[in-house]
Amino acid sequence: LALLGILIRLNLLALVAGLLWGLLLVWGVLLAIVLVALWFGWPLMWATIAVERSDAFDAASRTAAYIYQRPLRLVFYIAVATLFGIFGQLVVSGFAAAGNHLTDWAISWGAGSERMTQLVSQPVPGNVTPTLEGSAALAEQSIHFWKRMLASVAAAFPLAYLFSASVGIYLLLRLHVDSTEMNEIVIEATEQPQTMPELVDHPSGVPSVVNDDPEDLSTIGHVPPS
Question: Cβ contacts of residue 206 below 8 Å, gap of 6+?
Fold first, then answer.
């Protein structure tokens, strides 16, 4: 369409484009469909690649199909996930703020309120009070650095929750559209996990461990009777 826009600078080609503008509108509608799928479904694309171990084309096609086949369910899941996300953000922010204040409160018992004010309290803009120097100034900067780190962890919760919730929404939509169970997830092949050796009956009545040779039922050791 952009290339056609360059061509219609000529009057003759503009006339041709005007006669065929209906076909161009079809392309515009297709662009709108793709844009809506991308706008509402881009988190689901990451979930598709993680769950299915597929490529970007499969992620885009699955996302568009799920969005347009189950739009009301998608809206419902997003609403529920948003409510849980708000609650989770309140909890995380509450723990971060409580941890910050309780740390200051506990240390103030030993350091004293005046020393805590010097080291921990945020500087007030325009304050003419002399600032700390030397190691005390470095200590103040370090304390504020760690406080900002804790605040950053609480602020990063929505991003972590977004991708976790999108995986759950993807699995629910896949269940309703493709009738695929939620626990069917493609896992990359790894080494076989170590398992317990097989136990067999023994004439003595004590379970025995089978050797690696399947034809050899002699025991490696006996389980002592209780």
Answer: 222, 223, 224, 225
Q: What's the CA gap between 2 and 140, in Å, rounded?
A: 57
Residue 220, H or E segment: strand 219-222
The helix/strand/coil state of 201 is coil
pTM value surpassing 0.90: no
For 169-183, write each residue's pLDDT tens digit: 999 999 988 888 888
Which among 86, 91, 61 has a CA at the least distance from the CA of 177? 61
Rounded Cα distance between 30 and 41, Å, is 16
C-alpha span between 61 and 160 (Å, rounded): 24
CB-based contacts of 194, cutoff 8 Å, min separation 6: none
How many Cβ atoms are within 10 Å of 177's Cβ, its own excluded? 15
Q: Which two tokens stand for residue 133?
A: 């120097």
CA angle 76, 176, 74 (to 5 degrees): 25
